[in-house]
Amino acid sequence: MTTSTHQPILQVRSLAKAFGGNKVLQDVSFDVQPGEIVGLLGPNGSGKSTLLNTITGFEAIDAGQVLLQGKSIGALPAHRIVSDEGVGRTFQLPSMPTKMSVIEVAMAAATKQHGFWGTLLNSRAARDAEAAARAKATALLDELLLTKVRDLPASALSGGQKKLLGIVCALMGEPRLLMLDEPTAGVHPNLRNDIVSALKRLNEQGMTLVVVEHDMHFIRELCTRCVVLDRGHIVASCAPAELAQNERVLQAYLGGGNKHKEAA
Ligand SMILES: Nc1ncnc2c1ncn2[C@@H]1O[C@H](COP(=O)(O)OP(=O)(O)O)[C@@H](O)[C@H]1O
Ligand SMILES: [Mg+2]
Fold first, then answer.
1. Is there a domain that residue 56 lies in?
2. What is the number of the ligand closest to the CA of 53?
3. Ligand 1 pocket member 64 (CB < 6 A)
4. Does residue 154 belong to any structural domain of this protein?
5. Is 45 in the pocket of ligand 1 (CB under 6 A)?
6. Has residue 5 been placed in a domain?
7. What is the annotated signal peptide range for this record (predicted)?
8. Count of the separate structural domains present in the chain
9. Which are the contacts of 163, defined by CB distance < 8 A and separation ≥ 6?
10. How far apart (Å, rounded) are the C-alpha atoms in residues 45 and 40?
11. 16-68: pLDDT as tens digits
12. Is residue 2 part of a domain?
């Protein structure tokens, strides 16, 4: 493995995952280059969330490799992939604690880059780290349009706002690669453009993004490339503008009896 500047930030090699007899991912291989915004598409049940879960260590892989800037991370547990390797992620259906405010949830996502948890025995350092985490959380909540609700219980947020808080939490770890699972599902349409703008700004600052998304407007606005899954196989890797002409993509959405109007 070279360390040239052209090295992909993420390499997925022949990844396989089954749940019992259900082969959810088979021979999945793709690369993500630094600075890309890759849309991960596919009909419901095609394995998108499972792919994010296996890359980020939330599900064990059965076979294959996951490399982050050339380093194999396929056997690492999720907490190390997040906090040591700098891979942030959000969940398709985020649930939030009832007893914590929005800003407390964001601050709790601070990782050891801020020295937050490692300094709890040292009160001065802990105070400094808490102040740093609070400042970071405050800035990110503002960026993701949650300033007005930051003192509400996190469980009181709408589904869309929980998605935004999930993005804030992922960003607290200052990831180099951010993987988002349907960030705009359930988000009010007025907010979607703001999310696109926020993600574009992050990308301009150097963040690489992989985004599971159905909304074609969002994909065209944001993504530099799309990778399409169908029943656990990658069937296409192309520019957003080429999706509508790609036979394999059309087959994936139409052949399986799926009703995703977006790709039809
Ligand atoms: N933890 C799990 N246990 C058993 N089956 C699962 C689990 N997670 C996902 N699956 C199955 O894997 C398949 C793909 O699911 P998923 O990755 O959620 O698809 P997508 O995100 O593309 O809609 C589905 O058949 C789903 O039922
Ligand atoms: Mg999913």
1. yes
2. 1
3. no
4. yes
5. yes
6. no
7. none
8. 1
9. 90, 94, 182, 183, 184, 185, 186, 187
10. 13
11. 999 999 999 999 999 999 999 999 999 999 999 999 999 999 999 999 999 99
12. no
